[in-house]
Write a structure and sequence with these properties.
CATH topology of chain A: Macrophage Migration Inhibitory Factor
Oligomer: homotrimer
CATH superfamily of chain A: Macrophage Migration Inhibitory Factor
Number of helices of chain A: 4
Order of helices and strands of chain A: EHEEEHHEEH
Strand order of the largest sheet of chain A: 2-1-4-5
C-alpha cells in the first residue's frame, strides 16, 4: 500500500502518455505526505475491448482505483484523492477539452485484518 | 460511473466475441433505466496466465465487476444485476453448455465521499 | 468464487514464472479446505506501465486480490490468506532477496445479495 491502479480504453494509446501519467500520479501520491516512498505502486492496464457512452469510436476513459491501508482520517483520504485527481486532470487537459473523454477516481481502504505484505524495497530506501 | 469491468481467461479469444459482449452488456446497463448514457463504461481484460478449477486447459471464465454510484435502492441494484447477468448468460450460452466454463458478476457501490469524476461526454449527449 | 487476481509489473516477465505461480496459488487456495475445486479461478495481469517506489527500473511488484463469498469466519479467511501469502512468498523468495520487490495480498468478501454466478464446471467435477 498504497496501490493506484488505472484502467483505460486502448484507443488512448498514442493520444495519452500513460507511462508519464503513472509518474505524475506517483508524484501526487507522494505530495500528499501520507505515504512512504517505498510503498507506492502505480500501474495501468489497457482494455482492448470496451463500450463507452454512445459507442462513438473516439470515446475513451481513464478510471483510477486508489487503495490504501486503514488508519488515516477521512480528511486525509479526501486530500490525497484531490491531489491525485488534480494531477490526472492536468495531464488529461487536452482529452477533457474534447467531448469524448471521461476521468474518474475511487479511493478505498484495505481491511488491515485481511491484508498481508512483504516489502523488500523499504529497507533500501529507509537506509538512505 | 457506472463501471462494468470484465476479467476473462485468454483461452476465450476465438471462442467468444468479447467486443460484442461488451456492447451487449452496455445495452443491458442502459435497459435498467438507472444510468445515463454518457457515463457507461464497459471494458474487458484478458488474463494471459490463469489456473481454473481442475486445471483442464479447456477451463475458462468471465468474471464481471459492476461498480455504481451510491444512492440507488437495493431493489434497483439487484434489477440492474439481473439484466446484466441475463445478457452475459445469453451471450455465453454455448460456453455454458460445455462443462468448462464459469460466469460471475459482483455489484458494488462506490463511496461518493471518496469519488471524483470529470465527464466531457455528458455535455455532448445531454445537448442532443 | 473464490477469485484470486494478481496484478504485476511487466518487468517481472522473464524474472518470475507467473503461470507457475498461478498454479501454486491455486494449490494454496485448495489447501485451505474452504473452497470447492470447480470454483477456483486464479489469474494474473501484467501492467505494461507502472511507477514503483523510487522509480528504479528494477523495482517490481505483485499485488494479489482474493475475493470470496460471504459466510466464512474471520479465522477461516485469515487462515486462507496465510496459506496464499505463504505460497507467494515461497515462489518469490529470490525476488524478495533483492531490494526491489514488494508483495501484497488483500482478502475481501463479496456481498451475496449483489452476486450472480453460473458454473458449468461444478457438475462435471462433482460427478467424479
Amino acid at each position: 500500500m498504497p496501490h493506484l491502479a488505472l484502467e483505460y480504453s486502448a484507443n488512448l494509446e498514442g493520444k495519452a502518455d500513460i507511462a508519464a501519467l503513472c509518474r505524475e500520479l506517483h508524484a501526487a501520491v507522494m505530495a500528499s505526505g501520507l505515504f512512504e516512498l517505498g510503498a507506492v505502486r502505480v500501474r495501468a492496464f489497457a482494455a482492448p475491448h470496451y463500450a463507452v457512452a454512445d459507442l462513438d469510436p473516439r470515446n475513451a476513459f481513464i478510471d483510477m482505483s486508489f487503495r490504501v491501508g486503514q488508519g488515516r482520517t477521512a480528511v486525509d483520504l479526501r486530500s490525497a484523492g484531490e491531489l491525485i485527481f488534480a494531477a490526472a486532470t492536468k495531464h488529461c487537459a487536452k482529452l477533457l477539452a474534447e467531448p469524448h473523454f471521461a476521468l474518474s477516481l475511487e479511493v478505498r481502504e484495505i481491511n488491515s485484518e485481511l491484508s498481508w505484505k512483504k516489502n523488500a524495497i523499504h529497507p533500501r530506501l529507509r537506509g538512505q
